């Protein structure tokens, strides 16, 4: 496909991380494996937090919705990249590109919002334990999650509305695994992208405000934890909170750097690395880091695995005393 044809075509060409055919297939298989692992982990979290009576507290309720957002976010970006890489075309239509931007922006904002709610939940649980049941009542938790999902539509809509003002003057080649806003800005004409940059700056400021709220929650949490006399209690709290803080920092820092750095015309290895950090790694690692140090989740998963190994007992129950 010539540069002229690429410039005039209605869609875009996703180059991914390499134009070498063998490397394209290798990367596609690696991303497919990552997608399957991440999807399985998030699906397990969603299943056990829905069905198991031990996991019905607000913390696990929020964790379930985080896993739904993670699974959705992975499904928006990775399957399209794997399919286009294995097919060798890399082509994505304009409509598919806009849908990717809408849903990725929506799910990314939903993840920021739910992580903020989760940090507040941990703050109330650790710093205000006597008021926890009143502050984090089932009705308020439902309202919080509903607000997260409804508010996620706003950034996706604003991004799409602002991108419609862009005219693309360069070859429509995107050096990324999906249609990402920073990459589209590099294809735009001189002043067409100012509206989108304003949108990016606004959403970055809102995300930074959420991050400040999360940091304030953790400052109070850690100051309370350090005053705890029991080393076991401190260890339990840190094992719950530190993975959460790690995910928030990784997701927001790499995402902000990628979206604010739109000056470079040629793709760099660091940009590719950042894109993986805020699109693929957090949704894949969340089930691992939230369950690895959580004894309740591990015990429920063990019980689930053991029950599945002996399903015959459910079909043909044996009489016991």
UniProtKB/TrEMBL annotation:
<dbReference type="GO" id="GO:0016020">
    <property type="term" value="C:membrane"/>
</dbReference>
<dbReference type="InterPro" id="IPR017452">
    <property type="entry name" value="GPCR_Rhodpsn_7TM"/>
</dbReference>
<dbReference type="GO" id="GO:0007186">
    <property type="term" value="P:G protein-coupled receptor signaling pathway"/>
</dbReference>
<keyword id="KW-0716">Sensory transduction</keyword>
<dbReference type="GO" id="GO:0004930">
    <property type="term" value="F:G protein-coupled receptor activity"/>
</dbReference>
<dbReference type="InterPro" id="IPR000276">
    <property type="entry name" value="GPCR_Rhodpsn"/>
</dbReference>
<dbReference type="InterPro" id="IPR050516">
    <property type="entry name" value="Olfactory_GPCR"/>
</dbReference>
<comment type="function">
    <text>Odorant receptor.</text>
</comment>
<keyword id="KW-1003">Cell membrane</keyword>
<dbReference type="GO" id="GO:0007608">
    <property type="term" value="P:sensory perception of smell"/>
</dbReference>
<keyword id="KW-1133">Transmembrane helix</keyword>
<feature type="transmembrane region" description="Helical">
    <location>
        <begin position="101"/>
        <end position="120"/>
    </location>
</feature>
<dbReference type="GO" id="GO:0005549">
    <property type="term" value="F:odorant binding"/>
</dbReference>
<keyword id="KW-0552">Olfaction</keyword>
<keyword id="KW-0675">Receptor</keyword>
<dbReference type="GO" id="GO:0005886">
    <property type="term" value="C:plasma membrane"/>
</dbReference>
<dbReference type="Pfam" id="PF13853">
    <property type="entry name" value="7tm_4"/>
</dbReference>
<feature type="transmembrane region" description="Helical">
    <location>
        <begin position="242"/>
        <end position="261"/>
    </location>
</feature>
<dbReference type="GO" id="GO:0004984">
    <property type="term" value="F:olfactory receptor activity"/>
</dbReference>
<keyword id="KW-0807">Transducer</keyword>
<feature type="transmembrane region" description="Helical">
    <location>
        <begin position="273"/>
        <end position="292"/>
    </location>
</feature>
<keyword id="KW-0812">Transmembrane</keyword>
<feature type="transmembrane region" description="Helical">
    <location>
        <begin position="194"/>
        <end position="221"/>
    </location>
</feature>
<feature type="domain" description="G-protein coupled receptors family 1 profile">
    <location>
        <begin position="41"/>
        <end position="290"/>
    </location>
</feature>
<feature type="transmembrane region" description="Helical">
    <location>
        <begin position="25"/>
        <end position="49"/>
    </location>
</feature>
<comment type="similarity">
    <text>Belongs to the G-protein coupled receptor 1 family.</text>
</comment>
<feature type="transmembrane region" description="Helical">
    <location>
        <begin position="141"/>
        <end position="161"/>
    </location>
</feature>
<keyword id="KW-0472">Membrane</keyword>
<dbReference type="InterPro" id="IPR000725">
    <property type="entry name" value="Olfact_rcpt"/>
</dbReference>
<keyword id="KW-0297">G-protein coupled receptor</keyword>
<protein>
    <recommendedName>
        <fullName>Olfactory receptor</fullName>
    </recommendedName>
</protein>
């Amino acid at each position: 496909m010539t540069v002229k044809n690429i410039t005039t075509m209605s869609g875009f060409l996703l180059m991914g991380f390499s134009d070498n055919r063998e490397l394209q297939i290798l990367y596609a298989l690696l991303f497919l494996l990552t997608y399957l692992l991440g999807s399985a982990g998030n699906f397990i979290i969603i299943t056990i937090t829905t069905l198991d009576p031990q996991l019905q507290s607000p913390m696990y309720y929020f964790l379930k919705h985080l896993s739904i957002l993670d699974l959705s976010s992975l499904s928006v970006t990775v399957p399209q990249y794997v399919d286009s890489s294995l097919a060798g075309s890399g082509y994505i239509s304009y409509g598919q590109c806009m849908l990717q931007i809408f849903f990725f922006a929506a799910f990314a904002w939903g993840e920021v919002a739910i992580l903020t709610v989760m940090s507040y939940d941990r703050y109330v649980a650790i710093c205000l334990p006597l008021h926890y049941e009143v502050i984090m009542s089932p009705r308020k938790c439902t309202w919080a999650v509903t607000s997260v999902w409804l508010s996620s539509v706003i950034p996706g809509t604003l991004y799409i509305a602002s991108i419609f003002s862009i005219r693309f003057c360069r070859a429509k080649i995107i050096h990324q695994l999906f249609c990402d806003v920073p990459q589209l800005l590099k294809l735009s004409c001189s002043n067409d992208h100012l509206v989108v940059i304003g949108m990016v700056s606004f959403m970055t400021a809102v995300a930074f405000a959420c991050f400040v709220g999360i940091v304030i929650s953790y400052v109070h949490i850690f100051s309370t934890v350090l005053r705890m006399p029991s080393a076991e209690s401190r260890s339990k709290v840190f094992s719950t909170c530190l993975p959460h803080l790690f995910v928030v920092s990784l997701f927001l820092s790499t995402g902000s750097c990628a979206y604010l750095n739109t000056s470079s015309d040629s793709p760099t290895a660091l940009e590719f690395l950042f894109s993986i950090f805020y699109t693929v790694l957090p949704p894949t690692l969340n089930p691992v880091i939230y369950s690895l140090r959580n004894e309740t989740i591990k015990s429920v998963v063990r019980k689930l695995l053991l029950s599945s190994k002996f399903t015959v007992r459910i079909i043909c129950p044996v009489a016991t005393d």
